Amino acid sequence: IRCGGWGYSVGDEASAYWIGKKTIELFSKESDGRIEKGPLYEIIKTNLGLTMDAEIISYVNDKIRGDRIEIAKLAKLSSEVAKLGDEGAIAIFNEAAVELVEMIKALLKNYRNEQVKVSYSGGVFKSGDLILNPLNNMLKGYNVKLVEPILSPDLGACLLAFEASNNIISDSFINNLSMNKN
């Protein structure tokens, strides 16, 4: 069962693109003075080569032409800045965790009282504890166990297709796949 992942043009909450957009929004709010400037402000200016704050508009619209991959790359920058203690960047990752918890809660409606194992994939999770700690904290009180992925997303998709063809997937089958993933 899946939830979320509707694509960047519809709503891809907690994705790298979503975090990248939130990072640009944070920069614009800091530039305006709507919120206090944090380390992210100068790091964005330096990394994107901006001499004036308003150049962020031409950077997004003209230089990268709204390219979702380039915008998603800003999530890594936001992660690095958050790890340095930037409160605005940390808040973006906390908001991403909230979005993920909402998806998990929606999925839990499909299960009775059994504990549900939830795994994850994607570049956002390369930020490690920055996303995993708030996610785990917000899941306390739910019958959910967050588990590290055993297989790559492509093998996971193959498993889903295999299972959809009425095949049984045993733990030993998964263990064999995980030992032969290279």
Main sheet?
2 strands, parallel
Under the CATH scheme, which class? Alpha Beta
* Count of spatially separate domains: 1
The H/E string reads HHHHHEHEHH
Radius of gyration based on Cα positions: 19 Å
Q: What structural class do helix, strand and pairing data support? A: mainly alpha
- Would you identify the regions where 5 or more consecutive residues have pLDDT less than 50? none
Shape designation: elongated
Q: What is the helix tally?
A: 8
Strand composition percent? under 5%
Count of strand segments? 2
Widest β-sheet, arrangement of strands: 1-2
Span of the ends, CA to CA: 27 Å
Can you tell me about this structure?
This protein is mainly α and 182 residues long. The protein has one domain: ATPase, nucleotide binding domain (Nucleotidyltransferase, domain 5). Helix content is 58%, strand content 3%. The protein is built from 8 helices and 2 strands. The protein has helices at residues 16-32, 39-48, 55-63, 68-83, 87-108, 129-139, 153-164, 171-179; strands at 116-118, 144-146. It has a two-stranded parallel ribbon. α6 (129-139) links the parallel β1 (116-118) and β2. α1 (16-32) crosses α4, α2 (39-48) packs across α4 (68-83) and α5 crosses α6 (129-139). The longest helix has 22 residues, at 87-108. It starts with 15 loop residues before the first helix and ends with a helix. The relative contact order is 0.12.
